[in-house]
C-alpha cells in the first residue's frame, strides 16, 4: 500500500536537530530548549521527540534536560560518555548532573574552546 511507505530519512526539522547535535563538541552540552532556540523553531518537546525517534546515531548525551540530569533510563551510558569526554559534572542531592554553567555550548564557539 502506498500510504504505508515511509520517506527515507528523518524530516527536515529532525535533520536540523541531528546536524546541530553532531556539532556539539565533546565535553559540552545543549539543553533541549537551547537546541530549539538555536534553530529558531520548535521547542524542547519537539527536540526531545526528534532525539527519541532519531537520536541513536548521534551523540545524544550532549542534548540534555534543563536541570542537567542525564536522560532517564540511560543515566549509566550518559555518565560514562560524560566521563570519557571530560564533561563538567556536579552532584545535587546525591545525583550526578551536568554542570551547565561550565558545560553549556552556545553553538558559536569553535570546538576545543
Walk me through this protein's architecture.
This protein is 41% helix and 11% strand. It is built from five helices and four strands. The protein has helices at residues 12-23, 32-39, 44-54, 75-85, 100-103; strands spanning 30-31, 63-64, 89-92, 95-98. The protein has a two-stranded parallel sheet with strand order 1-2. Strands 3-4 form a two-stranded antiparallel sheet. The termini are far apart.
Which quaternary structure do these chains form?
single chain
Choose one word for the global shape: globular
Across the major sheet, the strand order is: 1-2
Task: Return the string of H and E elements.
Answer: HEHHEHEEH
Helix proportion: 40-55%
Q: List unreliable stretches of 5+ residues.
A: none
SS elements, strand count:
4
The description of the largest β-sheet is: 2 strands, parallel
Number of helices: 5
Question: How large a portion of the residues is in β-strands, by DSSP E?
Answer: 5-15%
CA distance, first residue to last residue: 51 Å
Decide which structural class fits the backbone: alpha+beta
Radius of gyration: 15 Å
Average pLDDT, rounded to a whole number, is 90
Amino acid at each position: 500500500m502506498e500510504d504505508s511507505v515511509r520517506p527515507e530519512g528523518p524530516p527536515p526539522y529532525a535533520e536540523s536537530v541531528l546536524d546541530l547535535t553532531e556539532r556539539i563538541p565533546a565535553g559540552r552540552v545543549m539543553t533541549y530548549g537551547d537546541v530549539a532556540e538555536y534553530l529558531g523553531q520548535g521547542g524542547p518537546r519537539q527536540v526531545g521527540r526528534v532525539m527519541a525517534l532519531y537520536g541513536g546515531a548521534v551523540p545524544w548525551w550532549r542534548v540534555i534536560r534543563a536541570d542537567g540530569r542525564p536522560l532517564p533510563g540511560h543515566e549509566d551510558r550518559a555518565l560514562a560518555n560524560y566521563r570519557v569526554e571530560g564533561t563538567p559534572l556536579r552532584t545535587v542531592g546525591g545525583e550526578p548532573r551536568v554542570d551547565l554553567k561550565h558545560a553549556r555550548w552556545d553553538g558559536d564557539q569553535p570546538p576545543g574552546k
